[in-house]
Write a structure and sequence with these properties.
- The complex is a heterodimer of chains A (419) and B (274).
- Chain A folds into 2 domains: 31-73 and 110-225, Rossmann fold (3-Layer(aba) Sandwich); 77-107 and 229-418, Rossmann fold (3-Layer(aba) Sandwich), CATH 3.40.50.
- Helices cover 42% and strands 18% of the residues of chain A.
- Chain A contains 15 helices and 14 strands.
- Chain A has helices at 41-58, 61-75, 85-91, 110-123, 137-149, 159-164, 166-174, 189-203, 220-243, 258-264, 292-295, 333-340, 351-365, 371-385, 405-412; strands at residues 30-31, 34-38, 81-83, 95-100, 128-133, 152-158, 178-182, 207-209, 249-253, 273-281, 297-301, 303-308, 345-350, 392-397.
- A 6-stranded mixed β-sheet of chain A has the order 3-4-14-9-10-13, with helices on both faces.
- In chain A, β5 (128-133), α5 (137-149) and β6 form a beta-alpha-beta unit.
- In chain A, α4 packs across α9, α9 crosses α10 (258-264) and α13 (351-365) packs across α14.
- Chain A is globular, with a radius of gyration of 20 Å.
- Helix content of chain B is 50%, strand content 14%.
- Chain B has helices spanning 9-20, 37-50, 68-79, 84-97, 110-115, 117-127, 146-151, 166-175, 196-208, 223-230, 240-248, 252-272; strands at 25-31, 53-57, 102-107, 131-134, 155-156, 158-160, 180-183, 214-217, 235-238.
- In chain B, α4 (84-97) runs parallel beside α6.
- The radius of gyration of chain B is 17 Å and the shape is globular.
- The relative contact order of chain B is 0.17.
- The A-B interface holds A 28, 36-42, 44-46, 184-185, 190-191, 194, 197-198, 201-202, 204-205, 298-303, 305, 308, 310, 312-316 and B 60-68, 71, 75, 78, 83-84, 108-111, 113-115, 135-138, 140-141, 144, 158-165, 168, 183, 185-188, 191.
Chain lengths: 419, 274
């Protein structure tokens, strides 16, 4: 008997991306009452230049051809959408699908954006890039692109994050980047942003600021969202192909909002519940968390009006999360607007819940997620648990956990806690 | 120099007086509450005695446009327990002692935003301030504060920088009042000054495009620099240089003497400049 060629088994290799910009902010970069460009005068012209260059590039097919070629052949897109059957069974309730951004080159979604902004920087003739980083994933993704394009690269990183994310610091150095520890303020991500902005002010002639999240002054929130839209657009096409329909719920964790906007925004006009999961740290009631949307109020920081964790007089507060990538007192302005217009459902996961879900996914599926992504997983599992078996929850697994192993081992008591 | 668009009678009078004396105004900056309330009051009073306009900084946790010297000032003030209310209390005390001094509150958007711009403008006016300089509210975002400041006759002082094209210079004249604060360098406060002839050319160009006094700041550290800038500007802003004395000194008396004497040097240099 002859075996027939399995013509019906086809690898999904070609993804069609929607290049229309949906849900544009107003001309000043405002999403409802949020966003804008609250920047010092010196940065107004460089920001306008980036805005003009972005719109010009976005309308140029050759820009996208190169970007998408790199996303496919360098980053490894499309990333799989994986039906986690054992995890779903163990958890009970809805079927769980994982968008595997952890399988991207450099181990997280961040590179979708750095490829886009890096190409824009090169197109604008900039010789240097600089960036802030929290967990180090954006720093690594920026340093990677700088190496790829032969650009000089400075990464600003809070001293506290340098200590807890040492493997990423060393990777950035290996990639040729100059990692600059920031000691001011709370010595975490917000202070790294301050320092990056200060240095960009002085160097904007020849330097491009590759901003890492869907926040900051216009056009960064829009631009970062557009460069990450590949996540949700792929997930949408993949779930339709695999399950024949849209998910009931899409879930992503939120620090500043880059993976959340990438995953959730392409479902914005669909009948899909969009859930953003903030870091509840030691619990929202403890005051030690990073849940800007749940516990903050509108304010102005880092160039945009958005929800912030601050005291009654507007002084920005220190935050806590076991995951450095979520440890930020603000959030992207479009998420703030989506929350106020009731298009976003808010959820939160504590340090403990994130660690429990990290272990569950690792043991049931053999996938070690990043601590950031473990927050999305924790809330996603909770939501799925209260749903029916024929329903679907799609969770963005924004990064892999390698960088967090030291933190996890300390938490589990497998290595001595020295910090 | 024109005074077409100066809301505050005091600022108008300051620039009129300087003009008649054929000199530039000296504008000094200190952060309120640095290093503590009591010392801060002494320092502000001492600087007020030597300057035409005093900029009183509102401490903020995240001073993005400031260099290490003024960042440290905010950190010291907040660590010593400074509240926004102290800014007004200190302003009121300085105003009582110096009825003719121009006073500008300077800082970042989030502090007035948190209290509400109407409440902020009302308190600023009541405590004796003449204007506000909010570093991260460019004219494009003025909708959140312009009406409140105008309603209380406070000048909305806007910045221009070496990167500001002509359209932004026109915008600053259209939306700003009091004076134009020209940031002499593309950098943060306290950095090194750039090429003086470039600064002069840009200032002259800005003055040609409108009629507000143009004051120059960022990076002026020596009496010689102050004199050079005074020769082509309506005002010379000195900030980090004074604030640095606070970090360097060991006791209140010492800080006060050094702030006072360095301000006096600046004042004399400006008066002698032609």
């Amino acid at each position: 008997m002859s075996t027939s060629r399995p013509d019906d088994i086809r690898l999904q290799s070609d993804m069609h991306y929607n290049l229309n910009i949906e849900h544009m902010p107003d001309a000043g970069g405002h999403f409802g009452r949020f966003g804008g460009r609250f920047a010092a005068e010196t940065l107004m012209r460089p920001l306008k230049e980036i805005e003009d260059a972005f719109f010009e590039a976005w309308s140029d097919p050759t820009f996208h051809a190169e970007r998408i070629d790199l996303l496919k052949n360098y980053v490894g897109r499309a990333t799989p959408l994986y039906h986690a059957k054992r995890l779903s069974r163990e958890n009970g309730g809805a079927r769980i699908y994982l968008k595997r951004e952890d399988l991207n080159h450099t181990g997280a979604h961040k590179i979708n954006n750095t490829i886009g902004q890096g190409l824009l920087a090169r197109r604008m003739g900039k010789k240097k890039v600089l960036a802030e980083t929290g967990a180090g994933q954006h720093g690594v993704a920026t340093a990677t692109v700088a190496a790829l394009f032969g650009m000089q690269c400075d990464i600003y990183m809070g001293r506290e994050d340098v200590e807890r994310q040492m493997p990423n610091v060393l990777r950035m150095r290996l990639l040729g980047a100059n990692v600059i520890p920031v000691n001011s303020g709370t010595a975490t991500l917000k202070d790294a942003v301050n320092e990056a902005l200060r240095n960009w002010v002085a160097s904007c002639e020849d330097t491009f600021y590759i901003f890492g999240t869907a926040a900051g002054p216009h056009p960064f929130p829009l631009m970062v969202r557009q460069f990450h839209a590949v996540i949700g657009q792929e997930a949408r096409a993949q779930i339709i192909e695999q399950a024949g329909r849209l998910p009931d719920v899409a879930v992503a964790c939120v620090g500043g909002g880059s993976n959340a906007m990438g995953m959730l925004h392409p479902f914005r006009d669909d009948p899909v519940k969009l859930v953003a999961v903030e870091a509840a740290g030691h619990g929202l009631e403890s005051g030690e968390h990073a849940a800007s949307l749940a516990a903050g109020k509108p304010g102005i920081l880092h160039g945009n009006l958005t929800y912030l964790l601050e005291d009654i007089e507007g002084q920005i507060q220190g935050t806590h999360s076991i995951s450095a990538g979520l440890d930020y007192p603000g959030v992207g302005p479009e998420l703030a607007d989506m929350l106020e217009t009731k298009r976003l459902t808010l959820d939160a996961a504590t340090d403990d819940e994130a660690l429990a879900s990290l272990q569950l996914l690792t043991r049931t599926e053999g996938i070690i997620p990043a601590l950031e992504s473990s927050h999305a997983l924790a809330a996603g599992l909770r939501i799925a648990g209260s749903m029916n078996q024929d329903e679907i929850v799609a969770i963005n697994l924004s990064g892999r956990g390698d960088k967090d192993m030291n933190t996890v081992f300390k938490y589990l008591g497998w290595v001595e806690n020295t910090s | 120099m024109s005074e077409a668009n100066i809301r505050s009678p005091r600022l108008r009078e300051v620039f009129r007086r300087c003009h008649s004396e054929d000199r530039s105004a000296l504008i000094g900056y200190l952060t309120a509450g640095d290093p503590d309330r009591e010392t801060s009051l002494t320092l502000l009073q001492a600087l007020a005695a030597q300057t035409d306009i005093l900029e009183i900084g509102m401490p903020f946790s995240d001073p993005m446009a400031d260099g290490p010297v003024i960042q440290a000032a905010s950190e010291r003030a907040l660590a010593a327990g400074a509240h926004t209310e102290d800014v007004f209390t200190l302003t009121r005390a300085v105003r009582e002692a110096h009825p003719d001094l121009g006073i500008v509150l300077m800082g970042y958007a989030n502090i007035p935003y948190a209290m509400g711009f109407d409440a902020f403008a009302k308190k600023a006016k009541e405590s004796g301030a003449d204007g506000a300089l909010l570093v991260d509210i460019p004219p494009e975002e003025g909708a959140i504060c312009d009406d409140a400041l105008a309603a209380h006759d406070l000048d909305r002082i806007l910045l221009l920088s070496p990167t500001s094209p002509d359209e932004r210079i026109h915008l600053a004249y259209a939306k700003g009042s009091g004076f134009i604060y020209y940031v002499s360098l593309t950098g943060i406060t306290g950095a090194d000054m750039g090429d003086m002839s470039e600064i002069r050319d840009k200032v002259m160009h800005i003055k040609e495009l409108g009629n507000l006094p143009v004051c120059v700041g960022f990076g002026i550290k020596t009496p010689a620099q102050a004199a050079q800038v005074a020769a082509f500007s309506d005002g010379v802003v000195v900030g980090s240089h004074f604030v640095a004395q606070i970090a360097n000194a060991t006791n209140t008396c010492g800080i006060c003497d050094s702030v006072s004497s360095s301000a006096e040097e600046m004042r004399q240099a400006i008066a002698a400049a032609t």
